[in-house]
Prior knowledge:
The termini are far apart. Strand 1 and strand 2 form a beta hairpin. The chain has a 3-stranded antiparallel sheet with strand order 1-2-3, with no helix packed on it. The protein has a two-stranded antiparallel ribbon with strand order 4-5. It is built from 2 helices and 5 strands; from the N terminus they run E-E-E-E-E-H-H. The mean pLDDT is about 85. It has one domain (about 15-100). With about 110 residues, the chain is of the alpha+beta class. One zinc ion binds next to helix 1.
Amino acid sequence: xxxxxxxxxxxxxxxxxxxxxxxxxxxxxxxxxxxxxxxxxxxxxxxxxxxxxxxxxxxxxxxxxxxxxxxxxxxxxxxxxxxxxxxxxxxxxxxxxxxxxxxxxxx
Length: 107
Ligand SMILES: [Zn+2]
Ligand SMILES: [Zn+2]
C-alpha cells in the first residue's frame, strides 16, 4: 500500500476499529480503522482507552477489556441490548462462527 503524504488539512475523526491481522499471512493481531482513506492501526497493547465508533449504533465509546475481544467492537449499551449482561456479549459458538467468517480462527 502506498503511503500518502498528508498535504491537506488533517482530518480528525474517531476511528472505527476492526480486529484483523497485520497481513493475511501474519498472526500478528492489530486493530485497524475501517473508514475510507484512513490507514491507522494500533497493536493490542495500545488499544485500550482509545475512542472507537460503535459498529452497531455509531456512537463513540472508549475501548475497554470487554470490547477488546470483539472483531467489530460495539459499545456497552449495544452489548446490554443484545446479551442482557455486559460480560458475556456472545457465546463461544458465535465467536467461532465469527472468527471463521473472518478467517481468523485461532486456538
Ligand atoms: Zn481512522
Ligand atoms: Zn453502540
